[in-house]
């Protein structure tokens, strides 16, 4: 069973981010398959967590270069997801309780498309507007220090 299908709906037309997102989906599916197959899912989970940490760090760097405030809702969501992922790993390793891993698999599959379609799409839009090149790290029109974005750029954000 596939945990989350990679579909055109998840494509944001930003090659670096799309590749990273597709890799996330693949790792989530590998983790889900390990759970379904009844084998030790921790190696797949470690790979997913390591990828997610690097994935979010990349986006955080892009946000900083594009002028997002350090404490915006996009960053806060990343922090919450990583906190839950790390806590589920702690339960699995220290308490030998694997149920949080099963729950997290379902929650990540539901969360990720919404996050990509709202917050990541808003990041890509901001990157395009400011002429940010993720390959070089150069930003044609960086935001002025006093005009940083405090929200996520999404219309659903309360900032």
What topology does this entry show?
Layout: H1 15-37, H2 42-66, H3 73-94, H4 99-130, E1 132-133, E2 138-139
Antiparallel strand pairs: 1-2
Provide key terms for this protein.
64% helix; two-stranded antiparallel sheet; 159 residues; Four Helix Bundle (Hemerythrin (Met), subunit A); 4 helices; elongated; mainly alpha
Descriptive account of the structure:
- With 159 residues, this protein is mostly helical.
- It has one domain (13-131): Up-down Bundle (Four Helix Bundle (Hemerythrin (Met), subunit A)), CATH 1.20.120.
- It is 64% helix and 3% strand.
- Strands 1-2 form a two-stranded antiparallel sheet.
- A hairpin with a 4-residue loop joins strand 1 (132-133) and strand 2 (138-139).
- Helix 1 packs antiparallel against helix 2, helix 2 runs parallel beside helix 4 (99-130) and helix 3 (73-94) runs antiparallel to helix 4.
- The chain is elongated, with a radius of gyration of 17 Å.
- The model has no long low-confidence stretch (mean pLDDT 89).
CATH architecture: Up-down Bundle
Tally the helices: 4
Radius of gyration: 17 Å
N→C terminal distance:
39 Å
- Could you tell me the number of beta strands? 2
- By CATH, the topology is Four Helix Bundle (Hemerythrin (Met), subunit A)
Helix content, binned percent: 55-70%
The rough form would be described as elongated
Please mark out the parts with pLDDT under 50 across 5 or more consecutive residues, or reply none: none
Mean of pLDDT: 89
Strand order of the largest sheet: 1-2
Topology as H/E string? HHHHEE
Q: Determine the strand fraction and express it as a percent band.
A: under 5%
Question: What's the number of structural domains?
Answer: 1
Q: What is the C-level CATH assignment?
A: Mainly Alpha
**Largest sheet at a glance?**
2 strands, antiparallel
Structural class of the helices, strands and pairings? mainly alpha
Domain Hemerythrin-like: 16-122
Protein name: Hemerythrin-like metal-binding protein
Family: Belongs to the hemerythrin family.
Keywords: Iron, Metal-binding
């Amino acid at each position: 069973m596939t945990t989350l299908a990679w579909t055109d709906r998840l494509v944001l037309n930003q090659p670096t981010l799309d590749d990273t997102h597709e890799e996330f989906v693949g790792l989530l599916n590998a983790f889900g398959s390990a759970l379904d197959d009844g084998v030790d899912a921790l190696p797949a989970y470690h790979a997913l967590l390591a990828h997610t940490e690097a994935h979010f760090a990349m986006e955080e760097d892009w946000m900083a270069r594009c002028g997002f405030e350090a404490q915006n809702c996009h960053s806060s969501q990343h922090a919450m997801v990583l906190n839950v992922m790390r806590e589920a790993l702690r339960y699995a390793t220290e308490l030998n309780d694997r149920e949080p891993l099963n729950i997290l698999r379902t929650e990540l599959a539901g969360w990720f498309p919404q996050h990509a379609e709202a917050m990541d799409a808003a990041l890509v839009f901001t990157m395009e507007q400011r002429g940010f090149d993720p390959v070089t790290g150069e930003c044609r029109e960086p935001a002025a220090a006093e005009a940083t974005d405090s929200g996520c750029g999404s219309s659903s954000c309360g900032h």
